[in-house]
């Protein structure tokens, strides 16, 4: 594994701070777009290594953007309260002042920052009743006696009505242990539904795909309103998209939702998928560049509390180049 670290120190030329800041903002926007190719990535690495002030500017600008994200993402304080009281949940949510936004973000890039970072975050924040930050997991006791465990960077909205119980998974991954009663218990994610039939199960939402895994009992999974519900029992999994529900290979129950116990168990996982799973537990992002398709799959057990060690281990196993950027971001690409 080839690992590069770019050190940070105070800039030597203070009068160039503004120009360096604008250049750093440009690179952050390009990285966030996920459209950078290898030559452009090499240009970024060369610019960062050219002078310590460049690395410092990059770290400073990324810290400002992280400050905005934290202001919008601040988790609710205190213990979980009754989740179906929407007015209370709304009052707990922090607001990002316009004065603060204007102070920390140059006006020329404010629109780009909002669209790339704050827009999706604030939308989910307004909809959610409970959420977790990157690297955080959380146990929630619902008022019906059910338990929900939220994985890192997860948000849910809860509606417990007189005749039905509905949880919407807005982002991330959650495990449900349902209290059995007469009211149906449904988990909505994207355009699909998972219906509890006396069970404990996990639902994960990633981009345009939802995956359901059963650890106890049984569920029914329905991708679209017109789809026939697919029954799943303990150890079975399924994935649905806009095109329908697809059953997946079964797994040992102990390997499902292992993150609840602080472990991430990977079994013949694609390298890029494994890295994405580990990256969920880092506050700073991980960017992948290059073709990972030809690399052999990876297996192992990793601690979610030590994501950087896990990334370094996989990089060493598959001869990947890991570049640490100012602000904690990491670039990974095949050698």
Written overview of the protein:
This protein has 335 residues and is of the alpha+beta class. Helix content is 32%, strand content 31%. The chain has eight helices and 19 strands. It has helices at residues 17-33, 38-50, 52-73, 86-92, 98-104, 107-127, 271-279, 307-317; strands at residues 2-5, 130-131, 138-141, 147-150, 155-160, 165-177, 185-189, 192-196, 200-206, 209-216, 218-222, 230-233, 237-241, 244-248, 263-269, 286-288, 298-303, 320-324, 330-334. The strands form three sheets. Strands 2, 3, 4, 5, 6, 7, 8, 9, 10, 11, 12, 13 and 14 form a 13-stranded mixed beta sheet that branches. A four-stranded mixed beta sheet has the order 1-18-19-16, with helices on one face. Strand 5 (155-160) and strand 6 form a beta hairpin. Helix 1 (17-33) crosses helix 3 and helix 2 (38-50) crosses helix 3. The longest helix has 22 residues, at 52-73. The radius of gyration is 22 Å and the shape is globular.
Termini gap: 8 Å
Structural class: alpha+beta
Largest sheet: 13 strands, mixed
**Helix content class:** 25-40%
Please report the total strand number as a whole number.
19
Principal-axes shape call: globular
Residue stretches low in confidence (pLDDT < 50, at least 5 long) are 5-15, 68-118
